[in-house]
């Protein structure tokens, strides 16, 4: 179902976009072209084809979920300009 110029103007109005007549016609052509591509894609018979998570069929490289020792908190806190009870103190920025 192709769009009309009034559809494009209505969409522009709803989006609060000022659009000239030339821009309306240009946008109308682009949108109708997109809808034609969508119709073309929808016309392809995909019966029996399993959906893919990736177009190349690759998998994600995930590291093993292994617990590690946490760094030494006291050594890290030595670098802090100000700290209290193991937490970094920062200056207040909002009154």
Rg measurement, Å: 29 Å
Number of helices: 3
Task: Work out the number of β strands.
Answer: 2
Structural class: mainly alpha
- Specify the overall morphology: flat
The strand line-up of the biggest sheet is 1-2
Briefly note the CATH topology name of the domain at 5-42: Histone, subunit A
What is the end-to-end distance?
A: 56 Å
CATH architecture of the domain at 5-42: Orthogonal Bundle
Query: What fraction strand?
Result: under 5%
**CATH class category name of the domain at 5-42:** Mainly Alpha
What is the helix content?
25-40%
**Low-confidence spans: pLDDT under 50, at least 5 residues?**
none
What is the N-to-C succession of helices and strands? HHHEE
Mean pLDDT: 89
Give a verbal description of the structure.
The protein contains 3 helices and 2 strands; from the N terminus they run H-H-H-E-E. By secondary structure, it is mainly alpha-helical. The protein has a domain at 5-42: Histone, subunit A (Orthogonal Bundle), CATH 1.10.20. A two-stranded antiparallel ribbon has the order 1-2. Strand 1 (83-84) and strand 2 (87-88) form a beta hairpin. It starts with a helix and ends in a 7-residue tail after the last strand. 1% of the residues are buried.
